[in-house]
Design brief:
Blueprint (H helix, E strand, L loop, with lengths): L1 H24 L1 E3 L6 E2 L6 H14 L3 E6 L2 E8 L2 E9 L3 E10 L4 E3 L2 E5 H21 L3
């Protein structure tokens, strides 16, 4: 009987260790991406249109808009991410605003978030870069 208790405890400990590492691995430092350069011959209206096309193409909703700024939200199952996209004649910046169910936390004063968020933002940056390059051909 004692042997079974020890084995159960050992298995529980092994499972806790085995499953805690993947949970930790889902978290990554939250760093906003580098700005996306706007080609010289693309106007502000076209930049805003290209940003919205990139957002919509990845399932993001525009929640607020004013000249030089677009706020957007992604609702994916129980996950919610909110970003602010600012732009001018030279560059576009994507910035984290808020999230829910994406494991956002501060560790030693540095923000961390679920690594999927970083992938989603990376796709937006890539799509926007492509859109802007195509806009130069119009």
């Amino acid at each position: 009987m004692r042997f079974m208790q020890v084995m159960s405890a050992a298995l529980a400990l092994a499972a806790a260790v085995a499953f805690s590492a993947p949970v930790q691995a889902r978290s990554a430092p939250l760093i906003d991406p580098d700005p996306v350069a706007v080609p010289a011959n693309v106007g502000a209206e076209k930049v805003a249109k290209d940003i919205k096309r990139a957002l919509a193409g990845r399932g993001w909703s525009v929640t607020a808009e004013q000249p030089g700024q677009i706020d957007s939200t992604l609702n994916l199952r129980s996950h919610v991410a909110r970003i602010r996209v600012t732009y001018d004649a030279k560059q576009v910046r994507f910035a984290y605003v808020d999230s829910r169910d994406l494991d956002y936390k501060l560790k030693n004063g540095k923000p961390y978030i679920h690594r999927n968020y970083l992938g989603w933002i990376g796709y937006l940056v890539s799509d926007l870069s492509t859109n802007l390059q195509l806009s130069t051909q119009d």
